């Protein structure tokens, strides 16, 4: 067990996050109306994997998880816009899944053994894109990527924009990287440290 949980911020950065911040669980706002957006208007990922609605337990369960959480470790991955809207899109989401899951494992190794990671996007596209179906949903086996696949924050109604604001980061989808003169976008992840 480490005494200083801020070391987890460093681990998240080492794992590839552009920014990471350790917040109070009270900073995580959960809204049913946000979770409902997965169904209407229907996200293409809806019902495609075990990590997205209607196959995740939703806002009420997430609020319960927060009551058991000591720290909310919020992560942000900034990537150039061309990568996120182009052929590399799913690869970028895969990287996010890896950062979140590796940081969750780090938290567990430090003694927060019930820590749970959540990522933006759907594991069906980023981790199982070459398959026609989710193995778990099809009932043909267990998850192909248990060490990496983490549920979508959207399905639990997490207000990601609010998290960005509390962490002190821009909520704008596009972020100008003036030094590089390229336009950047961001993706978010969250580890409930407990
Ligand atoms: S089998 Fe693939 S799509 Fe299904 S939960 Fe695992 S990673 Fe996601």
Give a brief outline of the structure.
The chain is α+β, with helices and mostly antiparallel strands and 194 residues long. The protein is built from eight helices and five strands; from the N terminus they run αβααβααβαααββ.
Would you mind describing this structure in some detail?
The chain has 194 residues and is an alpha+beta fold. It has one domain (7-193). Helices cover 33% and strands 18% of the residues. It has 8 helices and 5 strands; from the N terminus they run H-E-H-H-E-H-H-E-H-H-H-E-E. Strands 1, 2, 3, 4 and 5 form a 5-stranded antiparallel sheet that branches. It is globular. It starts with 6 loop residues before the first helix and ends with a strand. The model has no long low-confidence stretch (mean pLDDT 92). Residues 49-51, 123-124, 127-128, 134-136, 143-145, 149 line the site of iron/sulfur cluster. Iron/sulfur cluster (SF4) binds next to helix 6 and helix 7.
What is the residue-mean pLDDT, rounded to a whole number? 92
| Bound heterogens, unique | iron/sulfur cluster
The total number of structural domains is 1
Question: What's the order of the H and E elements?
Answer: HEHHEHHEHHHEE
The major pleated sheet works out as: 5 strands, antiparallel
